[in-house]
Amino acid sequence: MTIASSSPPSRLPVGGAAEAHSKPRTRRTETGENRGDGRLAALFIAPALLGFVVFLLWPTLRGIYLSFTRFNLLTPAEWVGLDNYVRMVNDPIFWDSLTVTVEYVVINIGVQTVAALAIAVLLQRLTQSAMLRGIVLTPYLMSNVVAGLVWLWILDTQLGIGNEIISAVGVDRIPFLADETWAIPTIALINVWRHVGYTALLLFAGLQAIPGDMYEAARVDGASEWRMFWRITMPLLRPVLAVVLIMTVIGSFQVFDTVAVTTAGGPANATNVLQYYIYGSAFGRFQFGYASAMSVALLVVLSAITVLQYRLTRAGRTDLG
């Protein structure tokens, strides 16, 4: 007797058809959800984007255009091509202002970085008290104008308490803000006093990211605190320190308010920094085209310095494995 065997027809599993039909729906649902998330993200970004376009992008583009014109607010802008840039290159006051600005930046960045690094290391190694961190940050909560006025009164040659103390110890009074030699270093140190706490807290945050077991291993090997600082702290802190340097250099080149309330560019243009000269050209002499040309030049200088700093300090890389 022959038994006929017939193989059952192949068919999808019980849930196969349902899964096959459900996949396109899932794709459509996911696409809809992604579209909804994108709209929500755009809604949150819109205020910041609007502020960026209105207060940064448009003024920058407008300033670049005005740098090629002669404009004084009273008459329409007149296209003059590169005349403002040629004038800037041949302007001795511009180069003197740039020199004064560079002197200020060197003093400010040098002293502030060293002092902030020392404070940050002390905060990490000796104490991490939140109260102490708040005290360190206190000067930063004061505006530059208020800080400038306070130090203007303290350092006044005749009535300032600073010069009263100097006179009490038998030293001649020092015209900190009225002497060509002392003016720029004094303004730089005023801004160091105000910003050093904030810079120190940024570096302190970077120190917190360094694993503590590295210091413990170094102590076991007999390394001193000084050796650990140069062999562990500085290499691993480099990316944060690089970003802090970029930020402080950009901010230092834009110094204006402290100069405006203390010396107004004097004495004898000794503190006539570039930002103050730009302000005087625009709002004092109504030469908005020429002031815009100097602003564009400052933008180019800061962009070049930022790129150079980023590459030299390897800010985008870290030695942490």
Could you explain the architecture of this structure?
With 321 residues, this protein is an all-alpha fold. The protein has twelve helices and two strands, in the order H-E-E-H-H-H-H-H-H-H-H-H-H-H. The protein has helices spanning 16-66, 83-89, 92-125, 130-137, 144-154, 161-168, 183-208, 212-220, 225-253, 257-262, 274-284, 288-313, and strands spanning 69-70, 78-79. The chain has a two-stranded antiparallel sheet. A hairpin with a 7-residue loop joins strand 1 (69-70) and strand 2. The longest helix has 51 residues, at 16-66. Mean pLDDT is 86; it is low at 1-23.
- Please, what is the average pLDDT? 86
Order of H and E elements = HEEHHHHHHHHHHH
The helix fraction, in percent, is: over 70%
- The radius of gyration computed from the alpha-carbon positions, rounded to a whole number of angstroms, is 30 Å
**Contiguous uncertain segments of 5+ residues:** 1-23
Sheet bearing the most strands, described? 2 strands, antiparallel
Strand order within the widest beta sheet: 1-2
Tell me, briefly, the overall form.
globular
The SS-based structural class is mainly alpha
